[in-house]
Design brief:
alpha+beta, Immunoglobulin-like, about 40% strand
């Protein structure tokens, strides 16, 4: 279907109120800008529309518009503003971590800074605060901060990110998230291998899903990977033969889908973790 047809189809959601397109100028502007090829202006209108307390049908339309806008170049054109000079990299990561006994939901803000960051806040519009704390920063400037005790997935919608750093003005950014993956595509096959269901790319403009594999020494209190690998070509379903002693280790396998909002990367990660008994006989 051509882009015009796809955009027009967004209006045909069953039971939708047809008057909303006329009454809400920000919704109309978002569609019009996208039709005209002005992705960044469309994204600005999407942000405005999320601030107008959209109905369920309107939310579905906004999600569809965002997904369509991402198809241009995986989201790079959504936002033409650049990161501040003291912030080299920035990622927002939604994770579902499945171990043998429970499922954990995570939200992390990760990046690279040249200055000391004193606080990061991340809240869903209008006032649902998910993160509000000082990040952990290592000697190289890489930082991370996590939400505490999430009881539901971080859903589609409008979020505000604020980063406060020493000697710098507060940096604020609107973030629009699309729906998280509905299906778990990664699971354990047995104690030493895993299955990966067929995973479609977000769209043709985005990179293929990648697989992250990390092996930890259970006696290492620093909890740094003893061995790790990340690949987006061949996705393995078991550990390769490694030059490590036989014994018990902790294995973390993650399937990563990525897109962008300008210079900010948005990652959806499905992870499975468990302890394993490694031996040459099983690999």
């Amino acid at each position: 279907m051509c882009q015009l047809g796809i955009i027009n189809a967004l209006f045909l959601i069953p039971n939708a109120n047809a008057a909303w397109f006329v009454d809400q100028s920000s919704y109309a502007a978002a569609h019009r800008h996208l039709l005209e090829g002005h992705t960044d202006k469309s994204f600005e209108s999407i942000i405005e529309a999320w601030q107008q307390s959209p109905t369920t049908d309107q939310k579905a339309n906004l999600n569809g518009l965002l997904d369509l806008a991402i198809t241009e170049d995986c989201g790079h054109s959504l936002d033409k503003t650049v990161l501040p000079s003291w912030l080299s990299k920035l990622s927002i990561e939604r994770s579902v971590v499945q171990n043998i006994n429970q499922q954990l939901l995570k939200l992390s803000i990760v990046g690279l800074t040249r200055v000391n960051i004193t606080k990061i806040s991340f809240s869903k519009w209008p006032n649902d605060n998910l993160i509000d704390s000082k990040p952990v920063i290592d000697d190289g400037g890489y930082f991370t901060v996590d939400a505490k005790k999430l009881d539901h997935k971080v859903e589609a919608g409008l979020y505000k990110l604020t980063i406060i750093a020493d000697g710098e003005p507060a940096w604020n950014k609107w973030i629009v998230l699309n729906e998280p993956p509905a299906k778990q595509n990664l699971g354990w096959k047995d104690s030493n291998s895993w299955r990966i269901d067929h995973v479609a790319k977000l769209n043709s403009a985005c990179p293929a899903p990648s697989l992250s594999i990390k092996l930890y020494d259970l006696n290492d209190t620093d909890w740094r990977p003893l061995w790790s690998e990340q690949t987006d070509t061949y996705l393995p379903t078991k550990l390769p033969k490694l030059n490590i002693p036989e014994g018990r280790y902790w294995l973390d396998v993650g399937l990563i889908n990525s897109r962008w909002q300008g210079e900010i990367s948005i990652l959806d990660i499905q992870s499975i973790t468990r302890s394993i008994d490694y031996s040459d006989d099983t690999h």
